[in-house]
Design goal:
The chain is of the alpha/beta class and about 425 residues long. It has eleven helices and 20 strands. It has helices at about 5-15, 25-35, 105, 135-140, 195-215, 230-250, 275-280, 290-300, 315-325, 345-350, 385-405, and strands at about 40-45, 50, 55, 60-70, 75-80, 95-100, 110, 135, 145-155, 165-170, 185-190, 220-230, 250-255, 260, 270, 305, 335, 360, 380-385, 410. An eight-stranded mixed β-sheet has the order 1-10-12-11-13-18-15-17, sandwiched between helices. The chain is globular and about 85 Å long. The two termini are about 35 Å apart.
């Protein structure tokens, strides 16, 4: 049974307010919720463990962050910020702090975003110890009391068994001879608090792709679903899976920012090609990877299911045609060349050391809208319903790719309708 809008909305509402980070209780609880749909096996990398040339960071969980305004006598106070209202008020991965400061002393620890004054910015400090609070520009400008009391309560630990990075993995096997089948990696991340497009759109589309692929009567590939905290999670995963991926990976698909804003349902998909494609283009050549060539072929005009010729078909051919005829058309989509400077976990998978055939799928691309990495990246701005269209088009691309490895039984649009 495929997820409907009511079920998607309920899961989104459960996940959205949780304070997630690259480690900690919020991340683990979110992964547990999603594991009700994809039976992820948790892979644990303990705090302090060396993973490639990185070190797994401490575990971090927000307990509560509050800010009070005090009068000159410091005897009367008024609550100004409380993370029980939104986890965005706390600098993500903040150090704990408790104390009374003057307004001037407080200022270096405050983060707002003047360009979008209604938005609380999402600020992190994973690898630089500091404490801080985030707030919108209007709240920032209204802080006119002489003194402030801060209570920033977090749990930061490296000694407990659960401390560290957890990666979720599940392999949906090919329907025939999975031990000989190549692997398709479908990856997303789960480490940002209170955002729809830049956080939850990827895992939610991943979940729905799992449901679609599980329902297929035939699967040519083993589909490996991986969910991790961004960057450090894929580094952890590569530290003990790189050799296996190099030997068996057909291609990888990293999911990020797959929602469309309300009223922009015509926003096309955007696919970022692999590093190998980028290098090949610099040399005036074509990518050595079939996934890059497939996407370059399909992007300009999209794909539509082939119409029946009306001729008698064998039972096998009839089954294939029925499978194709139920797929969604794929509208023309845009392509982006690889860049190591921005993006998601494709940067790790495609790094020079590994150079794997991994591409990235997006719709409203990160950094392309002013509300990116802020509290305004939510259901008021973005449509949850748009995730169904992203899912349907990506699922069709995945199945069309499977079929191109056998024979061409779909039509790339030629502009003639």
């Amino acid at each position: 049974m495929l997820m409907n809008l009511a079920e998607l909305t309920k899961l989104y509402q459960e996940l959205f307010p949780l304070c997630r980070s690259i480690t900690g209780d919020g991340y683990r609880h979110s992964l547990k919720l999603l594991s009700q749909y994809i039976p992820f096996e948790p892979l644990h990398y303990h705090s302090g463990q060396a993973v490639l040339d990185w070190t797994v960071p401490p575990d971090w969980s927000l307990v509560r962050a509050r800010l009070w305004a005090l009068d000159a006598t410091k005897e009367h106070e008024r609550l100004v910020l409380d993370s029980n209202d939104t986890a965005m008020y706390a600098l993500n991965f903040s150090e704990p702090f408790s104390g009374i400061l003057s307004r001037a002393e407080l200022e270096p620890h405050l983060y707002s975003y003047p360009a979008v004054p209604d938005a609380i910015p999402y600020v992190t400090s994973y690898y630089k110890p500091r404490w801080g609070l985030c707030l919108n520009q209007h709240q920032h400008e209204a802080l006119d009391a002489p003194f402030y009391r801060v209570e920033l309560d977090v749990i930061k630990s490296s000694e407990r068994p659960e401390d560290g990075v957890t990666v979720g993995e599940y392999v949906l096997p090919a329907t025939s001879k999975p031990e000989h089948a190549k692997t398709v990696l479908i990856s997303s991340y789960l480490c940002h608090s209170c955002m729809l497009n830049n956080e939850l759109s990827g895992p939610l589309v991943q979940l729905m792709l799992y449901e679609h692929l599980k329902a297929l009567p035939q699967r040519r590939y083993n589909y490996r679903f991986v969910l991790n905290p961004e960057t450090i999670g894929s580094i952890c995963y590569l530290s003990d899976h790189a050799q296996d991926l190099a030997a068996h990976l057909e291609y990888g698909l990293v999911l990020t920012c797959l929602a469309a804003q309300h009223g922009h349902d015509d926003q096309p998909l955007s696919l970022k090609l692999s590093r190998a494609d980028w290098v090949a283009q610099l040399k005036g050549a074509t990518s050595p990877y079939a996934i890059d060539r497939f996407l370059r072929t399909c992007a300009p005009l999209g794909i539509t299911p082939a119409a029946s010729s009306g001729l008698p078909l064998s039972p096998e051919a009839a089954q294939e045609h029925e499978r194709i005829s139920t797929l969604s058309a794929v509208r023309p989509f845009t392509l982006r060349t690889f860049s190591p400077n921005s993006g998601s976990d494709e940067r790790q998978y495609c790094s020079a050391q590994y150079n794997l055939p991994v591409v990235q799928a997006s719709r409203t691309v990160y950094g392309s809208y002013p509300e990116y990495h802020t509290s305004l990246d939510n259901e008021q701005l973005f449509s949850l319903e748009s995730l169904f269209l992203s899912t349907n088009e990506l699922f069709s691309l995945i199945v069309y790719y499977e079929l191109t490895q056998v024979k061409f039984i779909y039509a790339i649009n030629d502009g003639g309708g």
